Amino acid sequence: MSFPIRVCVVCSEEFELKPDKPGFANRCPSCSEPEAADPEPADKRSMDPLERKNAAEANEARRQAMRELLYRKDS
Predict the structure, then answer these.
(1) Residue 6, strand partner residues
(2) Cα–Cα distance, 4 to 23 (Å, whole number)
(3) Can you give the residue ranges of every domain in the chain?
């Protein structure tokens, strides 16, 4: 059984699309390899205690404002 021949959208090289090929179906195996990941992404950085406290206070203020908007009684 032969596998379909595809053309890579990144490097324009032809490759066989095999069932267990990792990555995208329109990219060759060398272009599908994952980029070197940063050891610490920007969203996953650790926060110091003051930043955590400020974030918690801001979240509580948002929750309180939403409660007031959603559950206030129009008189």
Answers:
(1) 15
(2) 16
(3) 5-32+46-71
Rounded to 5°, the CA angle 68-72-62 comes to 10
Contact 55, 43 (CB under 8 A): no
**Do 29 and 23 meet the contact criterion of CB atoms below 8 Å apart?**
yes
Return the amino acid letter for 43: D
Asked whether the whole model's pTM tops 0.90, one would answer no
pLDDT one digit per residue (tens) for the chain, 75 residues? 688 888 988 898 888 888 887 778 888 888 877 765 555 555 667 889 999 999 999 999 999 999 999 888 775
The pair of structure tokens assigned to 23 is 């990555």
- Contact in structure between 11 and 28 (CB atoms under 8 Å): yes
**Neighbouring-strand partners of residue 16:** 5
Q: Two tokens at 58?
A: 């801001």
